[in-house]
Amino acid sequence: MKIKEIAQIIDAKIVTGEDKIEREIKYGFASDLMSDVLTLDEEEIILITGLCNVQTIRTAEMANIGVILFARNKKPNEEMLELAQDNDMIILQTKNSLFRTVGLLFKAGLNPVY
Fold first, then answer.
1. CATH superfamily of 3-112
2. Is residue 114 pLDDT above 90, yes or no?
3. DSSP 47-84
4. What percent of the chain has pLDDT over 70?
5. Separation between Cα atoms, residue 60 and residue 111, nearest integer Å
6. Which of 12, 49, 84, 114 is spaced 20 to 30 Å from 91 by Cα?
7. Alpha-carbon distance 4 to 76, whole Å?
């Protein structure tokens, strides 16, 4: 599923990486526990979370995750956006709850990690 399709399905705003919306995503993983994120080794994954802080960006960087979707209308601050851009990450945000976001993407065919 392409990032632009993900954004359409959940009515998300693409905050950074607008030039990469054709990138394919195979898996979705939702968590607010960054220790769980560090256990992942899949590629072409989107992290869906409501935890909106610099640590989220740093954790995604360590886990080789290039796409983060912030749910619950969480808005990344300037420091987070700069760090994401420095790491060539795509950041999206949606007003939807984490539950609704994951449900819509699963229904549309996005695969879970497990």
1. HprK N-terminal domain-like (3.40.1390.20)
2. no
3. EEES--SHHHHHHHHHTT--EEEE-TT----HHHHHHH
4. 100
5. 19
6. 114
7. 19
**Alpha-carbon distances, residue 40 vs 11, 46, 49, 79, 83 (angstroms):** 26, 11, 15, 25, 21
Task: Give the SS3 label for residue 12.
Answer: coil
Q: What's phi and psi for 85, nearest 5 deg?
A: -65, -40
Does pLDDT of 33 surpass 90?
yes
Alpha carbon of residue 72 to chain centroid: 13
Q: Map residue 36 onto helix, strand or coil.
A: helix
The bridge status of strand 13-16 relative to strand 90-93 is antiparallel
